[in-house]
Amino acid sequence: MIQSVIFDLDGTLLDRDKSLEAFVFHQHKRLRIHLGHIDQPHYIARFLELDQHGYVWKDKVYRQLIEEFGIKGITPEQLLADYLAFFPHHCVPFPGLVSMLDKLKNEGLLVGMITNGYTGFQESNIRALDIEDYFDATLISEKENLRKPDKRIFERALQRLGVTAESALFVGDHPVNDVEAAKQAGMIGVWKRNSQWYTAAADYVIDDLEEIHGLLEALQREADVAGIKKEDC
Prior knowledge:
Strand content: 5-15%
Number of domains: 2
Structural class: alpha/beta
Order of helices and strands: EHHHHHHEHEHHEHEEH
């Protein structure tokens, strides 16, 4: 019986690609005194390319942009500070996020989150989505001094929620850091499919958050059938 659903944040609950594109668009407009000489679509495209879906921290991205585009009068540190301050204003949730979380809580399930990243930044993004109150446990890698795919951060989340690995679903977009790591910790691994990877060794695959409720119902039916067969034996 499933007692808990634990989520990744970026690419799973937060549509990071859309959020980042919106942020970069507005950064170019706000800082046009420094960036106005760069074609806006070119600036956005190059930023997203260097970012590598969030796996390159922005200090490196900005240093490269300054070098490539000959940006003057502003430092990488100032651009990074601008990113940290303004990115949360552009956070875009995936469709059905709040209604999905409402259903989980109404059904009495414990809800958790494990996300890699800097504590203050990720907390700001969670607040921007207005979802912090739904979570019974939120683990951020910097604060925990552990990062996915280290299975210990998954085990720590299970401990805080007070559930067993077998009774917990983990939903994430990364085939290794999320799905494989969760399975190594004994959890049920659910891959939220995306265009960045072709496949994942997941127990289940979903395309959007609204499918989670149906998946839970299917798992409950399977558990009920297994219970009946056991009694018949």
